[in-house]
Amino acid sequence: FRPIFDSAAERHSDVVFATVDTEAEQALAHRYSVTSIPTLVVYREGIPVFGRPGALSAADLDEVIRQVRVLDMDRARAQYGEQLAASKLEGDGAG
Fold this sequence. Notes:
The protein is of the alpha+beta class. It contains 4 helices and 2 strands, in the order ααββαα. 49% of the residues lie in helices and 14% in strands.
C-alpha cells in the first residue's frame, strides 16, 4: 500500500498525508482500534470521517479523497458531536 499512498500524496498535494508507527504510538493505535496494517483514517477539519483496515487500490483511495472533499461538513460535525456525546454517556455508565 505504501507506493499507492505515496503516489496519492504526490497527486493530491492539497491533502496532508501522514503515517504512524503503531509500535511506537500504541495508545493512538488502540484509540483507532487498529487491528491490521495498513489502517487508513481520514480526517477533515479535525474530524475523523473515514476509517478502514486494509489496503486500498489507487482508484479506491482517489475515490475516498473525492468523497471526503465533497462531504457535507455541517452534517459530519453534527454526527460526530452525537457520537462523542453517546460515547461519553457510555463511559459514565449511563448508556
